[in-house]
Specification:
389 residues, alpha/beta, Rossmann fold, 2 domains, five-stranded parallel sheet, two-stranded antiparallel ribbon, 13 helices, 7 strands, globular
């Protein structure tokens, strides 16, 4: 993969294709935001990305559309469940479906994922049961799922900490001489955290097989990206010696192609790659947030017109596909998942406090057993109080 260093583009633009210039000689032009499907669903030539999409036909497009529909429905259902008191909190991903589905679809079984707290769509595509995702935000489990079974670590709440975990894991993969890549997800705000920058230093130094995937959704909670990034975020990795791609994060095909390229480069020993997927967080940071206090309604509407699902649907229609049938099938799958989640929550058996001790260390040891025993004595005193009441 040959990449060129980008040059500055106009700062503060809300256009996902800001800085876009024609692509020449098969390389990303300076400052370009790479795109394959525009907002109207029209296929545009991309010499940098097209070679990675040769297998994408109408059936693949329909499957990507279905996945995005299901992910959006899970997100909507979880938001409703939080409002109804069934979940303590939920971090919505509305508007970011293409970034999550496109990147997850590019991964192979042996690749390993280190997510932030918002990659619920990625988790679903990696085989994490929807109930396991919701159990975390309900406070019903200390972990969530088995990372080995899914090829995905559990979600990280500490901003950017997962970047260090990803690089450490990737260095182990490197020493095992395994044909696998590691991908770490984070938002634009996390690029200002020391952990992410330190991770890039180590990854560049040891040329570890890591894909740094930044979903630039324009908001670090309520702070706009322009406050912390005077240039495109994709400019930053070049300073560490890490090549970067900037793609339209609402274009599922651009994300798919860029991630495939980066994964192949990592697995083949080419070292780390940074992807900035330029998208927009259409909802709140979490369900505890009120974005109407800081979001510009006109900007929100402009991004609504760039909906990632609508552009795939429009492209399928331009290919002569039966869009009504594809939409109906996708909606049926989404409805089934939503109903399954609600049924599962009704029958959920809460993990007891003992789980806190069984999921920390691989093997039991004396200090852990002491803590477990002391915790049991602490809980027993409340049973005694109730018995004497």
């Amino acid at each position: 993969m040959t990449l060129v260093h980008p040059t500055p583009v106009e700062h503060g633009s809300t256009d996902p294709a800001a800085g876009h210039t024609p692509l020449e000689d098969g390389h990303a032009s300076a400052g370009a935001t790479l795109q394959v499907l525009d907002a109207e669903g029209t296929r545009v030539p991309s010499p940098e990305l097209d070679p990675w999409l040769e297998d994408v036909d109408a059936a693949v497009l329909a499957d990507l559309f279905r996945s995005m529909t299901v992910v959006r429905r899970l997100d909507t259902e979880a938001t409703h469940l939080q409002r109804q008191g069934e979940l303590a909190l939920w971090p919505p991903l509305l508007g970011q479906e293409a970034s999550q589905v496109g990147s997850a679809a590019a991964l192979r079984a042996d690749d390993f994922v280190f997510p932030s707290y918002r990659e619920n769509g990625v988790a679903l595509l990696r085989g994490v049961p929807a109930l396991d995702l919701l159990r975390v935000w309900r406070g019903s489990t200390f972990s969530g799922w088995d990372p080995k079974a899914t090829g995905m670590a559990t979600q990280q709440i500490i901003i950017g900490a997962q970047a260090l975990h990803a690089v450490g894991y990737a260095m182990g993969v490197q020493r095992d001489q395994a044909d696998a890549a590691t991908i770490v997800y984070f938002g634009d705000g996390a690029t200002s955290q020391g952990d992410v920058n330190e991770a890039m230093v180590f990854s560049a130094t040891y040329q570890s097989p890591v894909v740094f995937f930044c979903q630039n959704n324009h908001w670090a909670i309520s702070e706009p990206v322009g406050l912390q990034a005077r240039r495109n975020i994709a400019d930053r990795p070049w300073g560490f010696g890490i090549p970067a791609l900037r793609v339209d994060g609402n274009d599922v095909l651009a994300v798919l192609a860029a991630t495939r390229q980066a994964v192949a480069r990592a697995a083949e020993g080419g070292g780390p790659t940074f992807i900035e997927a330029v998208t927009y967080r259409m909802g709140p940071h979490t369900t505890a947030d009120d974005p109407t206090r800081y979001q510009d309604p006109e900007v929100l509407e402009a991004w609504r017109a760039r909906d990632p699902l609508a552009r795939v649907e429009a492209h399928l229609a331009s290919l002569g596909e039966d869009v009504d049938a594809i939409r109906a099938e996708a909606q049926a799958a989404a409805d089934e998942l939503a109903a399954e989640v609600r049924r599962a929550l009704e029958g959920l058996v809460e993990d007891g406090p003992d789980t806190m001790f069984s999921e920390v260390y691989a093997e039991p040891h004396q200090e852990l057993e002491r803590q477990h025993r002391d915790h049991g004595l602490f809980l027993a005193q409340f049973d005694d109080e109730e018995a004497g009441a």
